[in-house]
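LAB NOTEBOOK - FOLDING QUEUE
OPERATOR: T.R.
BATCH SIZE: 2
PURPOSE: Compare the predicted C-alpha cell outputs for two unrelated chains run back to back under identical settings.
PRIORITY: normal
REVIEWER: second-year student, initials M.K.

ITEM 1
FIELD SEQUENCE / FIELD STRUCTURE:
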Amino acid sequence: MKQHAEIVYNKVEENSEYESIINRVIDECFKNEYLDGLKLYVSITLTVPEEIHILNKTYRNIDKPTDVLSFPMFQPDEIAKMIEDNYQEEDILGDMVISIPQVEIQAKEYGHSFERELAYMVVHSFYHLMGYDHMVEEDKIKMRAKEDEILNKLNITREG
C-alpha cells in the first residue's frame, strides 16, 4: 500500500508509535475522501512549541505557539477535480505541523489518551487541507462530523 504520509521530525525523536497512529488516521482519511487511488500525500512535521511558534508568527501573524498548523496546497474545487479525473501525478495535498509536547499537554487536560489527541490533531489538520474550517458554527458542525466519522471508524474515542 502506498504511503500517504511523509513524516518529518524537527527537534522530536523518531517514534514508531507516532508513525503508526498518523498512518492509520491518514490512510482512513484518504479512503473516506476517495483520495486513496491518487498519488497525493501529506507532509507531517512533528516538532516542539518553539518551532511551531515561529511558523505561527511567520504565516499567521500570531505570536504564540499552537498545537497544529495546516498549509493546504489546493482549493476544494481543485481536489474534487483531481478525484473526478483520477489525477495520477505525485503531488502534495499539503503540510501539517504538530507540536508533540502540546499533544501530550492537551491529552492530559482533556482526560484522554495521547493516541486519541494525536489522532485528532491529524484528522483535524487533514480536513483543513481539504478546505474545511471551523470559524463559523455551520462550518464547524460539518468539520466536526467529518473528524468524528474518521475517529469512530478507527475506534479512537475520547475515553481511549
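ITEM 2
FIELD SEQUENCE / FIELD STRUCTURE:
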Amino acid sequence: MITCGKRQTGGGMNSKRFGILALVLIACLAVVAVAAIGCGSSSSSTTTTSPAASASSGGAQTANQAAAAAAYAGMTDVPTFVAPPGGAFDAKTVMAGKSIMSIPGTGTDPFYVQMENGMKQAAAAVGYPFTTWNNQGQLTQYQQGFQNGITKKVSLIDLLAGPDPNSLKPQIDEAQKAGIEVVASHLTAFEQTVPYVDYNLPQDYTKAGRVLADWIIAHDYTAHVLVIGSDEIVSTQASHDGFVSEMAKYGPEIQYKYFNVTVPEWGTKIQPQVQSAIVADPQLTYVACIYDAMTQFVVPGVTAANAADKVKIIGFNANPFVIDYVREGKVEMTFGDSLNWAGWAIQDAEMRILAKQDIPTNGAVGEYLNNPFRMFTVDNAAEAGVPAQFSKGFGEYQTEYKKLWGLQ
C-alpha cells in the first residue's frame, strides 16, 4: 500500500514521556514486505510531547490496563464472518457481460499477490473475466494499465493498495468518461478519503495503531517504546493516529519515540536504529512495528544489543514469517487480516458497485471490506501452520461469500 507523500513532523521532547504530534499504515499491508515505489522522505526520528496527563493512581492504572486489554479481547479467536449490507444477490446475473481489472501497488510483493489471488478466486467462482495489471510500482505502468483497461472496455478498474489517485487524475477521468467505475481498495483507513475515484474501500488501519498501543498498555504500564513506521505509506498516518490517541486515553505514563524509515531503507536503517535506541534508553521495553515485516531487521538489532530478554517486539500485518517468529519466541505478538479474505471482500464490494447497490463512496465503517483482524501469540501461532501460511487460521469465508452470491 505504497504511495508518494510526506507527512509533517514536529520536534520537542519531555523527559517524562514522548508522543507524536505529526502523524504519518495499510495497508494493506503491508506493509507485508512492501516493495519500494520510488518516493518518500528519508529516515528520521521524531520525539514530541504527548497530550498532558497527570500521574495515574493505582486505581486508574488498573482501570486503564483493563480497558486496553478489553479493546483487543477476542482477537486471538478465529474471526467470524459477517455479511456486508445489501444481503444476497445473483452475482452471475449482475456480472454477465462485465469484467474487472485490478492495478496493484506492485505485482510481485506477497502482500499484493495474496490479495490478487483472492480476487481471482472470487471471479472464477462467479465466472466473470478478471485481470491483474502486473507492474513494478512505476507511475507510467499504472497509466499503461488504465489505457489497457479502457481499450478492453472493462467495467471496473480497481486500484489496489498503492496507485495514488492524485497522480492518476487524467487517467481516472478518461476511464470514467468511458463508463468505467474506478475504485481504490485497501489503501486507507475509514477516516481517510481518496480523491477522484468513484468509490473507496478502506481497512481499519486506525484500529491497528490502537491495538499496538493497547497491547503495550495492558502488559507494561510504564513502558518505554520505540515505534517504527514508514511515512510514505498512506495508511501509516491513520495507524499513528490510533496509537497516539490510545496512549493518551489509557497509557499516560508510557514514553514513546517514533522513528520514520522509508521502505528502501528498512534493510540498512532499522537494525542500527534499534541498537542505538536500546543504548540511549536502557529502560526501553518495547519495539512496535507498524508493519511487522520490519521485524526481520528489528530482531537482529535487539539480539545484537543483548536485549532479547527485556525488549519485546510486536507488529501489525500477521506476515507468515512473523507468526513463525512469534511461535519461536522472537516476537511477542502480531495481528492482521487475511489477505485472501481481503481479495474476496473486495470483489464482493465491487460486484455490488456494478449491481448499483447503495454503497457509500468512502466505505462505511468497514462494512464493505469486512475482513477482520486476528491476533497471534505463542498460544495460537501454530494455528497459522508450521511454518505459517498466508491466510491460514482465519476461518471460513469463501463458502459464505458463495452463499451470498447465489452460488450455493
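REVIEWER COMMENT (ITEM 2): The chain is about 35% helix and 15% strand.
FOLLOW-UP: none requested
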